[in-house]
Amino acid sequence: MKYKNEIKIQFPSHSENEAFSRTAVAAFAAQLDPTVEELTEIKTAISEAVSNAIIHAYDEAQNGIVTVEVKSTEDRKIVMIVSDEGIGIGDIEKAKEPLYTSKAGEERSGMGFTVMESFTDRLEITSKPGEGTKVTMIKQLDLLV
């Protein structure tokens, strides 16, 4: 896939950086003149992916790095990649099940991957325990007429 433009940002796995990533990705996507609905879906999907990395990738005492890459194509696709070098996911299929959470004692809905999948056209998750997780989401924007 050939990219028209791309950005890459990295930040510590602090909860306040979720809002930063959401704003940065929205500003990048705005260059393609998405509809309000498309922009909302992009912001929601990236928020879920970054939140997952912040909450699940690293132990509370450990500060890790979250990387967000966003790319656009000539045919108006937005490719969003969120990665970490945290604990990884042992069973991706289990993690994708609605209402499943690895933090059962906390107030977590277990809907992160479900939300990402519903607001994008394609969701890919790769992960290895002890090596981290990479979430790739692709959103096709409406074609301009």
Unreliable stretches: none
Major sheet: order of its strands? 1-2-3-5-4
Oligomer state equals: single chain
Largest sheet: 5 strands, antiparallel
Strand content range? 25-35%
Total helical segments: 4
Please write the string of helix (H) and strand (E) elements.
EHHEEHHEE
Helix proportion range: 25-40%
Shape: globular
Structural class: alpha+beta
Tell me the Rg in angstroms. 15 Å
Mean pLDDT equals 89
Compute the separation of the termini in Å: 23 Å
Structure, described:
Strand 2 (65-72) and strand 3 form a beta hairpin. 33% of the residues lie in helices and 28% in strands. Strands 1-2-3-5-4 form a five-stranded antiparallel β-sheet, covered by helices on one side. The protein has 145 residues and is an alpha+beta fold. The chain has helices spanning 17-30, 36-56, 92-96, 112-119, and strands spanning 5-12, 65-72, 77-84, 122-128, 132-140.
